[in-house]
Amino acid sequence: xxxxxxxxxxxxxxxxxxxxxxxxxxxxxxxxxxxxxxxxxxxxxxxxxxxxxxxxxxxxxxxxxxxxxxxxxxxxxxxxxxxxxxxxxxxxxxxxxxxxxxxxxxxxxxxxxxxxxxxxxxxxxxxxxxxxxxxxxxxxxxxxxxxxxxxxxxxxxxxxxxxxxxxxxxxxxxxxxxxxxxxxxxxxxxxxxxxxxxxxxxxxxxxxxxxxxxxxxxxxxxxxxxxxxxxxxxxxxxxxxxxxxxxxxxxxxxxxxxxxxxxxxxxxxxxxxxxxxxxxxxxxxxxxxxxxxxxxxxxxxxxxxxxxxxxxxxxxxxxxxxxxxxxxxxxxxxxxxxxxxxxxxxxxxxxxxxxxxxxxxxxxxxxxxxxxxxxxxxxxxxxxxxxxxxxxxxxxxxxxxxxxxxxxxxxxxxxxxxxxxxxxxxxxxxxxxxxx
Length: 436
Hints:
Layout: H1 7-22, H2 27-48, H3 50-53, H4 75-80, E1 97-102, E2 110-115, H5 116-132, E3 141-145, E4 157-159, H6 164-167, E5 175-179, H7 184-194, E6 198-201, H8 203-216, E7 224-227, H9 234-244, E8 248-254, E9 258-263, E10 270-272, E11 277-282, E12 294-301, E13 312-320, E14 332-337, E15 339-341, E16 344-345, E17 351-352, H10 358-364, E18 369-374, E19 379-385, H11 392-406, E20 411-416, E21 428-433
Parallel strand pairs: 3-5, 3-6, 6-7, 7-8, 15-21, 18-21, 19-20
Antiparallel strand pairs: 1-2, 4-5, 8-9, 9-10, 10-14, 11-12, 12-13, 13-14, 16-17, 18-19
Helix pairs in contact: 1-5, 7-8, 8-9
């Protein structure tokens, strides 16, 4: 007997039905859907959110609204006006609050809030990502991500499903989780012991894991790899294909916005998640880019009515793409230029992903921008921009935060700088290794 889905399970199933229809809808229908979402969000924002209600730049009626003439919302604005950007009330049915702290792609952490309603769409798009990547839900998945220093250390944590949204619709294998602060050798050992069906981690760490696999050939089970959080290079894609004989499926998301683009099922480019956000790729003069042209990303998430982010300049750049031949009609990003991280190297030869806890630094320096450099096997340098005074007690607190997170007594120099520039490629390098 087949039971009809009820409650959250029914909601999850309905969202998947909706997404599978809209992803193949004509562009004109997608634009109409987005206009309706923007209208509802905007009218709420100017009525309930002090930041938009009290500024002349935001028209008070939808009839006089010219979207592209609205100012963009900078990360510095979100840092400075976090309280004024929050609605005192959210619409009925949007559920409880969810809090995020994001280091982002500019080195300037932000503190944002969302709702349970918005998280439903996050989970729905997670399922879409699994379906587009054609993953076998009965298999196991290994996740190597940044966590608190004392959590998910080797031998990691096991849970019995792939997550709350997925388990409502599918029976899945287990999910294994490991802290990305573990050395790359330990991460590879962990994968060798588990032999998971799928792997999710950061591109910089994955690159080194692929090199270890080419050397040792001990992980023989992986059917697919997912990446997030950093810029993914063509070289890493090719290396993983050679090492694990499978394809990388990348995703573009952020804590404060959610999913913005997912990799195409057939190609290496990305489809914008138009049901969840309006993503604009703009020239410096604010006009839209044409296919093949690189511009700055400005994004408006549709479903966060606790802290609406209207035309949020997230700090990344992208190259727009031509329409895709895969059957999915969602707009295309040819590539995304976001943040990058090198790996931290230890005197004993270990390497690991550098989880230096920018969230704790944000509490110490609320309006600052951070970048960490490794200058030798024994020493690091923390560059801080956007602070007027950098006291000695603040320096010592910052040093303690980094040493606790990175779990090694490096000699750390804290330096106040005027600004932190992007690399020539356009990427913001959050952690730079100066070691050959």
